């Protein structure tokens, strides 16, 4: 029987604008968890570390990703964290039981050191305050410590700790996943909404220039979703700038076709949260439009079993160390494209996390830093995905999977960087056996030329990278060609593609 020819088409036009992309859409996350901080960004005795103990090999990889913002210090950890434990002379800092992950927190790294690291890594800090065990007072004091220039108790304390200039952190999260019963200090939506509102008011009095993120649901499967969002916003709508979304994905049943379709669910999640925000906007007769911060997303399931076996109360054990497969990289590409297509409302997002903990970057203690499979789609979209998101009109054959119907084999997002005169087309072929015969109409970019066709492909969906061998890495030998405003290409089975045009 002749091999089936699967044909797909994308039409792109410079007038089909979705919205401007905030560079913070490509953020990430470092929590005091596992080996993210200790043994990740920080390893005092590593040969490649700075005098302060920051691994320069890790910093180089973070710079390769061009991460614009990093959320800190948690995560679940922040809900029982006393920020004061992490400032001042390191020798005087207490070792504390860290309740979220049941480890010992030595507090060698705290707010000031993380600000130093962020400068070295050329990134901004997205701070989170503890609304679990603490509240308004601790939050406004931390903000005064970080952002007030001088002449007050907390700002002068920062200066006495050697930081004369304020950190000027702009983006602040009002707690973390407060809807989750696992959270220390878990709250009902009304309890959280009231506390978030009053904390926001106090924080804005300290520094009116900050932007605030209220907690949405921990994931779309929470029984309180989306009532949590509605109630939280009933309280906070006029005082906050963003509402958060969190979601992790996994392929526990080994059903790749179904796994790669999970971004359809993510798309629905974003649409439901957007609709909920707009419902509250209408109810309040507000002129303000709420933006979204998808500040935790990734694949997380490979390490679940191993984490059950970790003994409590050690320092920086290897927790949540997922080793990612090629198919995980494909899903990560699709997640990033979903975010780009919602760039009008989703202004910030964080791949959770950045180093060692469900991360694109891994380290060996005393050894090398290396790239997981998911590093590559993240790097491509972060680097080439700056500008305006354009709506691709997609015509593609479809399939049904266990949980989804009408899944297009072709997934795509398009970014036009008008300043640099660059057009980037991101593409995923979800078909696991066949190539897609694709044409792309780019007639409205007639003065542009084809620059590069990057492909991430592998015959083994379960291929992984290790410190010694990079089995999954992209090449630039894609077969795209451009003639009279039409790009022709074959997207190989199960592949991630980046087609770049420019003048
Ligand atoms: O990123 C790991 C954890 O996932 C975070 O601490 C928490 O916010 C989420 O549940």
TrEMBL record:
- E.C. no: 3.2.1.55
- Of which family is this protein a member? Belongs to the glycosyl hydrolase 51 family.
Reaction(s) catalysed (UniProt annotation):
Hydrolysis of terminal non-reducing alpha-L-arabinofuranoside residues in alpha-L-arabinosides
The pathway entry for this protein reads as: Glycan metabolism
Q: Specify the protein name.
A: non-reducing end alpha-L-arabinofuranosidase
TM segment ranges:
none
Pfam families hit by this protein: Alpha-L-AF_C, ASD1_dom
């Amino acid at each position: 029987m002749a091999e089936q020819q699967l044909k797909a088409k994308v039409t792109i036009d410079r007038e089909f604008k979705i919205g401007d992309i905030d560079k913070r859409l490509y953020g990430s996350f470092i929590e005091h968890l596992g080996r993210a901080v200790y043994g990740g960004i920080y390893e005092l005795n590593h040969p490649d570390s700075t005098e302060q103990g920051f691994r320069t090999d890790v910093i180089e990889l973070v710079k390769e990703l061009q991460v614009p913002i990093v959320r800190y210090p948690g995560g679940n950890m922040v809900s029982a964290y006393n920020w004061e434990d992490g400032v001042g002379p390191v020798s005087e800092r207490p070792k504390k039981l860290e309740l979220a992950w049941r480890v010992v927190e030595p507090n060698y790294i705290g707010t000031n050191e993380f600000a130093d690291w962020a400068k070295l890594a050329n990134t901004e800090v997205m701070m989170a305050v503890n609304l679990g065990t603490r509240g308004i007072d601790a939050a406004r004091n931390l903000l005064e410590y970080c952002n007030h220039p001088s002449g007050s108790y907390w700002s002068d304390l920062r200066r006495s700790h050697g930081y004369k200039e304020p950190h000027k952190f702009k983006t602040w999260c009002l707690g973390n996943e407060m809807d989750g019963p696992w959270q220390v200090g878990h709250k009902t939506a009304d309890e959280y909404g009231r506390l978030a509102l009053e904390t926001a008011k106090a924080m804005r009095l300290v520094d009116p220039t900050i932007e605030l993120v209220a907690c949405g649901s921990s994931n779309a499967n929470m029984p309180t979703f989306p009532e949590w969002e509605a109630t939280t916003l009933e309280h906070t709508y006029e005082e906050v700038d963003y509402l958060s979304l969190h979601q992790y994905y996994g392929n526990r049943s080994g059903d790749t076709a179904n796994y790669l379709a999970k971004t359809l669910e993510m798309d629905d999640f974003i649409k439901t949260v957007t609709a909920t925000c707009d419902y509250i906007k209408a109810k309040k007769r507000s002129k303000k439009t709420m933006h979204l911060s998808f500040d935790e997303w990734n694949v997380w399931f490979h390490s679940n079993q191993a984490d059950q076996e970790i003994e409590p109360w050690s320092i920086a054990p290897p927790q949540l160390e997922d080793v990612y497969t090629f198919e995980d990289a494909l899903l990560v590409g699709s997640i990033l494209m979903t975010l780009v297509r919602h760039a009008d409302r989703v202004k910030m997002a964080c791949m959770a996390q950045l180093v060692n903990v469900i991360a694109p970057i891994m380290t060996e203690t005393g050894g090398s830093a290396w790239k997981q499979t998911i590093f590559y789609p993240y790097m491509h979209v972060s680097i080439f995905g700056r500008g305006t998101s354009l709506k691709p009109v997609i015509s593609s054959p479809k399939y049904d999977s266990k949980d989804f119907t009408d899944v297009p084999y072709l997934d795509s997002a398009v970014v036009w960087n008008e300043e640099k005169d660059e057009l980037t087309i991101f593409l995923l072929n979800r078909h696991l056996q066949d190539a897609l015969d694709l044409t792309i109409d780019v007639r409205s970019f007639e003065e542009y030329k084809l620059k590069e066709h990057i492909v991430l492909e592998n015959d083994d969906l379960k291929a992984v990278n290790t410190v010694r061998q990079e089995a999954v890495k992209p090449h630039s030998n894609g077969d795209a060609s451009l003639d009279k405003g039409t790009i022709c290409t074959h997207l190989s089975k199960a592949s991630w593609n980046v087609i770049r045009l420019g003048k």
